[in-house]
Amino acid sequence: MDLLVVGAGEMGRWIARTADRPVAVTDVDPAVAEAAAAGLDDVRAVPADTTETFDIVCLAVPISAVADAVERYAPHAERAMCDVSGVMEGPVEAMRAALPDRERLSMHPLFAASNAPGNVAVVADAPGPATDAIRADVAAAGNHPFETTVAEHDAAMETVQAGAHTAILAYALAAADVRDEFATPVSAALDDLVETVTDGTPRVYREIQETFEGADRVADAARRVADAEGDGFDDLYREAGER
């Protein structure tokens, strides 16, 4: 079974090199697709307006572009479509509408491609041999695919992505410039996390913040900590430890 990867950015290149089958890549920027194909073994680039069809089409596009990409590339998917966009509700609903009689799978690699392998959240909305083959490729590359639901995944992203990123970026913006010798184990760990988050692409993090709630809860919690006094702080400290 062959595979078309739509979107030749970081996650598109990840799925292209993870899939153990003939792969083609495309992108709105032909030069990006050509560069991705040149850097991967046995991968070819095709134009965004290709007329070819493939057994499986995998969308590795920004969250804001998923719905349009589903509609555009559904006719090119003979057996199945999947996505690795990072949100579940929109892609699953769009694929249900556009491909009611074909296999459908939504995956979210919970890591930057440079940190692979890792955990991969999976919603098998309409599973079958083609989507099972892609999941097997992901697992064979050392990743841990695990089943979830649309609702559970998107709710979890409010904490592990939107909330976590808000906390790290807020710390970075609030931190004063101090000598390295003053670092504590906690501040050093936070500095490492700041480096991890800010080493990415702003648009990716912006779309996460715009898609998932969670930032306001972190801001509210920070205000509770800042305003707490006496026993009130002790109560918050114990509450945090019970999470």
TrEMBL record:
The keyword Oxidoreductase applies. Residues 1-243 form the Prephenate/arogenate dehydrogenase domain. One of its GO terms (molecular function) is prephenate dehydrogenase (NADP+) activity. Signal peptide: none annotated. The keyword Oxidoreductase applies. One of its GO terms (biological process) is tyrosine biosynthetic process. This is Prephenate dehydrogenase. Keywords: Oxidoreductase. InterPro entries: 6-PGluconate_DH-like_C_sf (IPR008927), NAD(P)-bd_dom_sf (IPR036291), PDH_N (IPR046826), Preph/Arog_dehydrog (IPR050812), Prephen_DH (IPR003099). PANTHER family: PREPHENATE DEHYDROGENASE, PREPHENATE DEHYDROGENASE [NADP(+)].
